[in-house]
Design a protein that fits this description.
The chain is mainly alpha-helical and 145 residues long. The protein has 2 domains: 54 residues; 62 residues, Winged helix-like DNA-binding domain superfamily/Winged helix DNA-binding domain (Arc Repressor Mutant, subunit A, Orthogonal Bundle). Helices cover 52% and strands 8% of the residues. The chain contains 5 helices and 3 strands, in the order αααβααββ. A 3-stranded antiparallel β-sheet has the order 1-3-2. Strand 2 and strand 3 form a beta hairpin. The longest helix has 35 residues. The protein is elongated, with a radius of gyration of 28 Å.
């Protein structure tokens, strides 16, 4: 095992940023090891209690990267319709509520990356009523024109 360098040699040979990066890496490695150990203990306890492993082992997880979020690329297929066109397909001559419109859209495999798809649907319905494509018959009820 090589001898530890003295603090004086470390400060002489390495920049502050390099020392800081090494300390961060050491802390990250230590935290990951502690997490893996905790997950193993939780898994063993879970198996002992009900014979079922609830917690995945830490070795199965990939280490998480911290940094800027990547831009989301539009994953719609080339044949996918815009939301407005899909709403017009779902709506009929009978008034429909938001829930039934959402259900019809989901049957047509509409997926939203939004955390609030209902709000997205409401704003699109407002846009369509302003455009004149659909008409609002009463509160929360829409019909195709």
């Amino acid at each position: 095992m090589p001898a530890k360098p003295t603090a004086e040699n470390i400060l002489k040979n390495y920049s502050f940023d390099e020392i800081l990066d090494l300390a961060k890496e050491k802390a990250r490695t230590s935290a990951n090891e502690k997490l893996a150990e905790a997950m193993r203990h939780l898994s063993a306890l879970s198996e002992a209690i009900d014979g079922e492993q609830r917690f995945p082992t830490a070795s199965a997880k990939k280490p998480t990267k911290i940094g800027r979020p990547k831009r989301v690329i539009d994953k719609r297929s080339k044949n996918a319709l815009p939301l407005g066109a899909m709403i017009l397909e779902v709506l009929g001559s009978e008034p429909m509520g938001i829930e039934s419109i959402l259900l019809g859209l989901k049957k047509r495999r509409w997926k939203s990356a939004s955390k609030n798809p209902r709000g997205l649907l409401n704003s699109e319905l407002k846009r369509q009523t302003d455009k004149g494509s659909i008409r609002k018959t009463e509160r929360g009820m829409y019909v195709k024109v």
